[in-house]
Write a structure and sequence with these properties.
It is a single chain. By secondary structure, this protein is mainly β. The chain starts with a strand and ends in a 10-residue tail after the last helix. The protein has one domain. It has one helix and five strands. A five-stranded mixed β-sheet has the order 2-1-5-4-3.
Length: 90
């Protein structure tokens, strides 16, 4: 089943990514457009560690790619509109 992951870090603070649940790591590819003949640098991957954060009686899937305080994570949960993990999946 797919759930919403709140992204923190790697230039994606507060963004939401829908992906399969459960995961311990979330890998995001970044698509780049280059002129022909520039060589192939591959697709850069951004790695996030997935954590479960409890807030207001709900559990959220938070993908963390940088150091963040608990208060900062709560602020992102409240401002992003991310949906909690459904109880039947916990």
């Amino acid at each position: 089943m797919k759930v919403e992951y709140l992204l923190i870090g790697r230039g994606l603070d507060g963004k939401i990514k829908m992906d399969d649940y459960p995961k311990q790591k979330l890998l995001l590819g970044e698509v780049t457009v280059q002129a022909a003949g520039c060589g192939n640098n591959g697709t850069p991957l951004k790695t996030f560690e997935v954590d479960h954060i409890q807030h207001n009686g709900h559990v959220y899937a938070v993908a963390i790619g940088r150091s963040a305080t608990g208060q900062e994570i709560i602020q992102f949960i409240e401002s992003s509109g991310v949906k909690p993990i459904p109880d039947e999946l916990l």
